[in-house]
Amino acid sequence: MKILLVLTGGTIACKTQNHQINITSETADSILTVYQNINPDSNTLFEVVQPLHTLSENHTAVTYNQLIQFLYKTDFSSYDGIIMTHGSDTLSYTSALVGMLLPDISVPFMITASDYPLDNAKSNGISNFSACVRWIEHSVCNGVFTVYGKKDFPCIYLSTRICEADPVTDDFSPFGDGIVARFHNNRITFINNELVNLLKTSRRQQRFFQQPPVIQKNVLLIKTYPNQNFSVYRLENISAVVIYLYHSGTAPVVGSDTNICHFMQKCREKNIPVYTASHKRKADNYVTTIESDKYTTLKIYQTSQECAYIKTLLAVNQTEYLPDEVIRTDIFFEQE
Fold first, then answer.
1. 0.90 exceeded by the pTM?
2. Which of 48, 129, 194, 290 has its CA 20 to 30 A from that of 80?
3. 27 pLDDT exceeds 60?
């Protein structure tokens, strides 16, 4: 079996010195070294590439474009599977990105991370990495997945249905029914057989974006919260706005600076599309939602904050479709 190991940095490639955690060039392939020391009889061959090397909180358009170019230039069909190591801070965003760019991939593409550097005994890095290898070895299902969990209890998430980690527990959470399976004692326990069947029978046969998007235009992501002053948001060099509403699909429509409709009207005057997300497909809506809908360019239904942002970022930075067409499309099962 042959696996392509894609190193991009993050905690899983860090060391701790004088209470400071940072990536170093010497630790670039340490995850593989540790894994092979634990599994000396493994017949799996690894090919290692490193398209970028950074802490994931430092991802920008530059690093995203480097990753996108790598994803489009690499022939993944010559491998039995791919494992990409990444930082945990923006893991859910990059997971959404890879899932939407490679919805047709014919092998398992596993994205994983670590809560502590590998030199810390509490680290879940090897546990997560081992689960990736086992998933590929068992040829369970093709597609893009994110693997992360408590040490020796990793979860396999669909890459477009994972939400960022809790800052206290460092645990990620699924968006809807986003957990596909769990691993323990080298055994797979399926959690969502319906999703597995969808991946096996309804996965795209070709990429949605035939040409690699190039991230140049900016998207403003806004999360609603009480007493929010919408007047503080600058709209210079913004190509689209994503507003992630409360879970009921609502936002305030009272006051002046706190009225979302006033802000959306300013966007309209500047010809900046506003996409609102967290919407459910239902007949009844709150009066506040009905009011803000008058100013909404398009509603994003049953999609995580990460996917809503990444999909919009891709929509405005590609030339194959109208942006609204991208927003409407369920690219890789991101719509729960």
1. yes
2. 194
3. no
